[in-house]
Design a protein that fits this description.
This protein is of the alpha+beta class and about 300 residues long. It is about 35% helix and about 15% strand. Helix 2 (about 10-25) runs antiparallel to helix 4 (about 35-55) and helix 8 (about 110-120) crosses helix 10 (about 145-155). One of its GO terms (biological process) is striated muscle contraction.
């Protein structure tokens, strides 16, 4: 129905409504008439209008191409830089850049500066990073001017994108079981579990990477998604977890090859990975389809409780 919305003029009506609400809100008419609290409702209504606009153009090249000119892009970025309208506008901008690659040719340095400024305004918002990614590649081809501008204005003096390989998403799962070493306790000291990989697929430009092992509740706290400590910890990314990816042992963010493999992903469909924990030594060992790998973790701290994690 998106084409129908444009033919019937709904798209233009939404844009006009956004302009009128912006004027009403910026000049303080509603605040003066109905008070501060009701006046703030205009920002909420404005946010809904941006969501509606994104829904009308998402995935539709014809509708997105309306914004692929300097006049409309300047309109978008003027709204993007205004207070209270950033997050909704990011959805609209992302749709335009993805579904109307010609808009990339109209982008200017000042546009990219506005987006980078949003990182400081909203923090490491995944939506902002998605828009920056959209600027870098169009139709599978690198957009060098945008890439160079992002590097020039974003990287100096900042550490947001200085990693060599940014990971799309990190998540951890674990069963509700904790084991540990307590003096004088009758708790058993040796444990073993297995993980069988039933299905694997690549959903982004990065090959899937799976690590399996043991972690300690004294320090291992994964943070999937955005927010505080954005980026997430995986098994072996800190000193409180010990993992195996099918070829390398991982702890403290460092890898040690113990089972050489030529192709990725190292753990393939049907593989069975075994993880043994012996708290009497202590030692953690791993198995691939029943064969023990030539490497292990020993001498680690026994404070806290251990749990299986992948």
């Amino acid at each position: 129905r998106q084409d129908l919305f444009q033919e019937e003029g709904i798209l233009i009506l939404i844009l006009d409504a956004i302009d009128k609400i912006t004027i009403i809100a910026s000049q303080g008419y509603m605040v003066a008439l109905v008070g501060e609290e009701s006046g703030q409702d205009w920002e909420i209504i404005s946010g809904y209008l941006y969501q509606l606009l994104a829904a009308v153009i998402k995935g539709n090249h014809t509708n997105c191409s309306i914004f692929a000119n300097s006049h409309r892009l300047n309109w978008l970025f003027s709204r993007l830089g205004s207070a209270g309208e950033g997050t909704g506008m990011l959805d609209v901008l992302h749709c335009v850049l993805i579904d109307s690659p010609e808009a990339l040719n109209v982008m200017k340095e000042e546009h990219i500066k506005v987006i980078i400024a949003l990182l400081e305004k909203y923090g490491r918002d995944p939506k902002v990073l998605d828009v920056l990614c959209s600027l870098c590649v169009g139709n599978g081809t690198a957009v060098r001017s945008s890439q160079n501008n992002i590097c020039d204005y974003l990287l100096p003096g900042r550490n947001i994108l200085l990693q060599t390989q940014l990971v799309d998403h990190v998540s951890s799962v674990r069963p509700n079981i904790f084991v540990g070493h307590v003096e004088g306790s009758a708790m058993y000291q040796k444990y073993y579990f297995e993980v069988t990989l039933d299905h694997i697929e690549q959903v982004s430009h990065l090959p899937p990477h799976l690590r399996i092992g043991w972690a300690n509740n004294c320090g291992y706290v994964p943070y999937p998604g955005g927010g505080e400590k954005w980026g997430g910890n995986g098994v072996g990314d800190d000193l409180y977890s010990y993992g195996f990816d099918g070829s390398n042992l991982w702890t403290g963010g460092r890898e040690t090859c113990v089972y050489p493999m030529n192709s990725r992903p190292y753990i393939k469909k049907g593989d069975v990975i075994g993880c043994a924990l012996d708290l009497t030594v202590p030692i953690i060992t791993f198995y691939v389809n029943g064969r023990q790998v030539n490497g292990s973790f020993t001498g680690f701290n026994l404070d806290g409780m251990f749990f299986p994690v992948l």
